[in-house]
UniProtKB/TrEMBL annotation:
Gene3D superfamilies: Galactose-binding lectin (2.60.120.430), Ribonuclease Inhibitor (3.80.10.10). Residues 609-630 are annotated as: Disordered. It comes from the Eukaryota. It is found in: Membrane. This is (wild Malaysian banana) hypothetical protein. InterPro entries: Leu-rich_rpt, LRR_dom_sf, Malectin-like_Carb-bd_dom. Residues 1-27 form the signal peptide. It comes from Musa acuminata subsp. malaccensis (Wild banana). PROSITE patterns: LRR (PS51450).
Length: 630
């Protein structure tokens, strides 16, 4: 009696709680969650059956090509096209989706194979979201249903979302679809490790028992659940059998995770012969995993608290002791969700449910997430400057330069060296090594916005134009190698301010003018420089001298003198030209009249007279011209 009233009481509390959380959920989630689905490579919007899901036509990609798709797994949405990224488009390519409302999202990317009889390569590549690498496709993924997609829970904090695909030299990344589905802000809250600093990648999601593999959508689940995919499993390696119920289950579809009721209507249970349940999965070693276990007491023979008790251990360590579902939920046919985080050093994660006091273990569903620490990003200013450089330098397409320059750390942009700046908590650029890369462009002034640069090597390219004087403001610059380009103009004075400069190679360019005196002193600091192979440079030992130095007054004097001489020369030339014109004209006239003397150059005075006579207007003009200088 006491026990019953206790159970009753607990049940009431739970019911009230669940009503409250349902209310909260309703208040928090008026309307539909945000959803963006992209059918990669599709020229127009697509809807798929049976749920009439809308997929936007392809957009937001940084490169790649469209192709027809071969779908490797029954799990994948029935889409017909994909986008693939040949290496000639660069080693990293991305989808940059903007105007995503801030929030918490389940992101899912499906992969596919190019439909082409001559194309049987299974590509292997890495995937990053917002600069954090979340997955590395393994050989054989296209023969494994669960591996034909990657899914993760991420926070979008800046209205934009970037997913990148990184070539690893094993074929062209090929993407079937991208889904960005909003979930509850506190979905899968698991304790202190949880939050904006982590991404949860789905490593396993199973529905246990008689249920069919399905999406939340197929189960009639809430859209706030993120349309998870539940792979059906009806027994474990050597243990367990399926049971199911038609009873409705309480405490389902509630905030924050909105699990569909269907999950709790089937289960795997132990038997007399094998009361324990044991599930083992392969994992990446040395990671933390967030484990979510789902229960409901659906066996009609178990009605009392304590009739089924079991312990749960993860890789041998007890994670939950004395679980008794009815005691914890207040009755049969009510959902119970347990979560814990476990650090795994080996390659396997084993979940064992061990019946105690002779009872059999039970489980309804299992979710395992890899907890991935979010990478710090590259300083937004530096990223902006690199984008300017990308176009100014005429960076070849094969270098890519998409996504974040420094992260994921496994895939930085080629030719870019990064350093972590603990003061700002961002990555910054400290080196540019783009020597011999076929650059065809100019050095923009903005390059100096990369204030952390220590080394620049643009040697052996086709850079033209001037050396920007702004380079002199990069205080930490130690190496500046611009040799073997077509840079012209003079060497900026400002380079003399670079007190840490150790190597300055400007040889093999079209530079001219005086080498700044300040640079001449650099070798004293053990710096090495090379100015040779520039026809027009002068002024330091080893180069031609620039001629005498002149005072400002002298320079002005020379300038004046030069202008005067120039003016004289112009006038003289004009006189000579006009006279010659007149002579030629007179000769023509004379020739026409067959005058015997008209050909002689020395008789120009008479020619002019003759001309005067016949063409009065010309005469005035030529007269003025002749008279002026005298
Ligand atoms: C894709 O398949 C369609 C026919 O289903 C064909 O018309 C089209 O040319 C194919 N596209 C490519 C890029 O192979
Ligand atoms: C957010 O995005 C804007 C442009 O979309 C950018 O200017 C800004 O730096 C970003 N902020 C952060 C913290 O990434
Ligand atoms: C997961 O477990 C922690 C305690 O380990 C708990 O604080 C948290 O509320 C649980 N999350 C959910 C969504 O139930
Ligand atoms: C796992 O999480 C703990 C904090 O709970 C942390 O100290 C540890 O470094 C993490 N392990 C890995 C491999 O990330
Ligand atoms: C197991 O049964 C014993 C006696 O029947 C009882 O004292 C004990 O509390 C039970 N343990 C659990 C975990 O229910
Ligand atoms: C710059 O690159 C060129 C060409 O690869 C190389 O020969 C040279 O040593 C590099 N300069 C410096 C200072 O390392
Ligand atoms: C440098 O070369 C560019 C063309 O590449 C030309 O427009 C510019 O006038 C040249 N400057 C000097 C100082 O010769
Ligand atoms: C300077 O550059 C020239 C070619 O322009 C090269 O022959 C010479 O060896 C270089 N000098 C030094 C000290 O590197």
């Amino acid at each position: 009696m006491l026990l019953r009233s206790f159970i009753h009481h607990k049940f009431l509390v739970c019911t009230i709680l669940s009503v409250i959380s349902l209310r909260n959920a309703a208040a928090q989630h008026e309307g539909e969650p945000y959803a963006m689905r992209i059918s990669c490579g599709a020229p127009k919007d697509v809807t798929t059956k049976p749920t009439n899901t809308l997929w936007k036509k392809d957009f937001g990609y940084t490169g790649g090509k469209q192709a027809n798709a071969t779908i490797p797994s029954f799990i994948e949405p029935q889409l017909k096209t994909l986008r693939y990224f040949p290496l000639s488009d660069g080693p990293e390519n991305c989808y940059d989706i903007t105007d995503i409302p801030r929030g918490h999202y389940e992101v899912r990317l499906f992969f596919a194979l190019i439909a082409d009889p001559n194309f049987d390569n299974e590509p292997m590549f890495d995937i990053s979201i917002e600069g954090t690498q979340i997955h590395s496709l393994k050989s054989g993924w296209s023969n494994n249903d669960e591996q034909s997609f990657v899914e993760a829970l991420v926070f979008v904090t800046n209205a934009s979302f970037t997913a990148c695909f990184h070539s690893t030299g094993h074929g062209d990344p090929s993407i079937l679809s991208i889904e960005i589905l909003q979930v509850d802000d506190t979905a899968y809250y698991s304790g202190p490790l949880w939050g904006k600093g982590t991404v949860l990648r789905t490593a396993k999601r199973l529905t246990c028992g008689t249920g069919k593999s399905a999406f939340d959508e197929d189960y009639g689940g809430s859209h706030w659940g993120g349309d998870r995919f539940w792979l059906a499993i009806s027994y474990f390696q050597d243990s367990g059998h399926s049971i199911s119920t038609e009873h409705s289950i309480s405490m389902t579809s509630i905030s924050p995770n909105f699990y569909p009721e269907k999950l709790y209507q089937s289960a795997i249970v132990g038997s007399d012969l094998q009361p324990d349940l044991s599930f083992e999965m392969e994992v990446e070693p040395n990671r933390n995993y967030s484990v979510w276990l789902h229960f409901s007491e659906i066996d009609p023979r178990i009605t009392g608290e304590g009739e089924r008790t079991f312990d749960i251990s993860l890789n041998g360590d007890i994670a939950f002791e004395n679980i008794n579902i009815i005691g914890m939920t207040g009755g049969s046919n009510a959902a119970l969700v347990l979560n814990t985080t476990v650090e795994v050093s080996g390659k396997a994660l084993t979940i064992v449910l061990r019946g105690t006091n002779g009872s059999h273990a039970i489980i309804n569903a299992i979710e395992v997430f890899e907890v991935i620490s979010v990478e710090s990003k590259t300083s937004a200013d530096d990223v902006g400057t690199l984008q300017i450089l990308k176009s100014s330098l005429g960076l070849p397409r094969r270098l890519g330069w998409n996504g974040d320059p420094c992260v994921p750390q496994q895939h930085p942009w080629s030719g870019v060296d990064c350093q972590f700046d603990s003061k700002s908590g961002n990555w910054v650029i400290d080196g540019l090594g783009l020597d011999n890369q076929g650059l065809k462009g100019f050095l923009p002034n903005d390059i100096a916005k990369l204030q952390h640069l220590q080394s620049i090597n643009f040697s052996e390219n086709n850079l033209y134009g001037a050396i920007p004087s702004s380079l002199g403001t990069i205080a930490g610059l130690q190496t500046l190698d611009l040799s073997y380009n077509q840079l012209n103009g003079s060497i900026p004075e400002s380079l003399g301010q670079l007190t840490l400069l150790q190597i300055l190679n400007l040889n093999g360019n079209l530079l001219s003018g005086r080498v700044p005196a300040s640079l001449g002193g650099l070798p004293l600091h053990r710096a090495s420089f090379n100015f040779t192979g520039n026809a027009g440079l002068c002024g330091i030992p080893g180069l031609p001298s620039c001629g005498p130095r002149l005072s400002v007054a002298a320079k002005i004097g020379i300038a004046f003198g030069a202008s005067f001489v120039f003016l004289l020369a112009v006038v003289a030339a004009l006189i000579w030209w006009k006279r010659r014109e007149n002579i030629l004209r007179a000769q023509r006239i004379a020739a026409a009249r067959e005058a015997p003397y008209a050909k002689a150059r020395t008789h120009f005075a008479r020619d002019v007279q003759m001309t005067k006579h016949h063409r009065p207007r010309d005469q005035v003009r030529s007269h003025t011209l002749i008279m002026d200088p005298t």
